[in-house]
Amino acid sequence: MSEAIKNRYEFVLLFDVKNGNPNGDPDGGNMPRIDPETGHGITTDVCLKRKVRNYVELMHEDRPPYRIYIKEKAVLTVRREPAYDSVEEVKDKSEKVSRARDWMCENFFDVRTFGAVMSTKENNCGQVRGPAQFSFSRSIDPVVPLEAAITRMAVETAKEAESQGGDNRTMGRKAYIPYGLYQTHGFISAPFARQTGFSEEDLALLWQALMNMFDHDHSASRGEMAVQKLVAFKHDSELGNAPSQNLFTLVRTERIDKERPPRSVSDYRITVDEKSAPQGIEVIEML
To answer: What DSSP element (H or E) covers 16?
Structure first.
């Protein structure tokens, strides 16, 4: 494998949604997630990691070293079987778990990037703390969750058709927000990257996935989603040269016309104050 990254990174990701549901809440009738105290929209870190995983799987078709461990409909003990097969001759239990964990990091992109808990009884591969982590996303302004009534011109069973006298309609509802611009913060740790083998090639793939993840994730429920800005902060050391909260404030998003609700990214002014970056920080605008 390639050498692990030697620099700490943070990043700011801005993405938007038009007439869609970016991350429905299954405990709330799949309505868009919001902060009930402020009305700002929320998406989880797990939601974005899923899209990164799907993009990498699409690119590399589940081939090592870019296999995806947490893939849709996967049976995780089965995904770990090859790791145990590779260390079958090892007798010491702790050593076996350690080597199996290393095998998982070497072969699965999401394990060495995001980490994984693999310490169940069957095919125990221990735990991995991944170097790349995301915050929850939060909309710049409050959003308005809405529902639209929809009609399907068909029914599922003959019994339904009979009860409707042949009208054959199925009513439903679709949850969405008219528009929301969301901001996410990310963190990439060089010391943890050294433990998992997260390399410069992995980092480049992560940036690529973040910029393109919505292009291959369209669905009727999500409307139009797109990444609008990606700004990375590269430290010239492993442990970092400035607190992350000071770097995030360098990216500023301001609504241009506060008298009307936003409906496009063009309704915002996004600026990056590179001149105020602390010493030892390189500001990289990728989008």
So the answer is: strand 9-20
